[in-house]
Amino acid sequence: MDFMTDRDVQKYSQDGYVVLDGLLTSRECDELRQRMAEIVDRMDVPQHCRTTFSTSPDQQQQQGNADYFITSGDKIRFFFEKGVFDDKGELRSIFFLSSYYEMPNEVRALPGMAKKLGLVSPVILQSMFIFKQPGIGGEVTPHQDATFLHTEPLGRVAGLWIALEDATVNNGCLWFIPGSHNSGVSRRMVRTPKGSFPLTHFTGLEPAYEDAKFIPVPVKKGGVILIHGEVVHRSAENTSEDSRHVYTFHVMEAQDTRWSPDNWLQPTEELPFPPLYTK
């Protein structure tokens, strides 16, 4: 039986997102979290590379200026958020962003989902493990993924947001504006010419969105949200006592698609965007 139904495809097309329960088992979620804990234990980030990650426009510009960020396309890199260091400078937690395109073996249903969506030649763009830690997990302001992952034509990028723990209104689940993927992209982060500074800048402006238009989308542990690249979404701070760990990555339909050379994320000869379909 297909993991994704025709009704799910219709909702994704209509709203710009859809929740699918049971992508991973509870054990598979725990195993992914354990593997990430092992990576963090081996983490060695130089002090000058401890880049703060944020979705606010001003801080986005600052992180986009950092070579550590702009060269993360073929590496595992660690990013931090405000409040993660204590008064002695010791690390309390991290917001981990890995731009190294890797999909865990547990996500066996993904090729079938991609085929259900009609994708002919999908590739994996990037992957992230996001720690929304208790009490300090920061806000993610309203945005569209296509601001950072731009294609011509639009509509070729989708995100998969896998809840490794229950994502609730209390611990910072995602909120969406249904149907907002039909309004185009208002803002882009682009690279500046080589040798210039800053390394990136934004074109266009993020409009002001009405809070009343956002709908909370809680997800049970092991569930996934399929996210259209142009749908507007956000998440609130995590002021609860529960963490909200997620594993997320983006895929792109490569057939008849131009990946913008202005995007901050660029493949390399050594590590091109890998195909999703292996057969």
Please write out the topology.
Elements: H1 6-15, E1 17-20, H2 26-41, H3 57-64, H4 67-70, H5 110-116, E2 122-130, E3 140-143, E4 151-152, E5 157-163, E6 174-176, E7 187-191, E8 200-204, E9 215-217, E10 224-228, E11 233-235, E12 246-253, E13 258-259
Antiparallel strand pairs: 1-10, 2-12, 3-11, 4-13, 5-10, 5-12, 6-9, 6-11, 7-8
Name some characteristics of this structure.
single chain; 279 residues; alpha+beta; 22% strand; globular; metal-binding; Phytyl_CoA_dOase-like
Structural write-up:
There is one protein chain. With 279 residues, the protein is α+β, with helices and mostly antiparallel strands. Helices cover 16% and strands 22% of the residues. The strands form four sheets. A five-stranded antiparallel sheet has the order 1-10-5-12-2. Strands 3-11-6-9 form a four-stranded antiparallel sheet, with no helix packed on it. The chain has a two-stranded antiparallel sheet with strand order 4-13. β7 and β8 form a beta hairpin. It is globular.
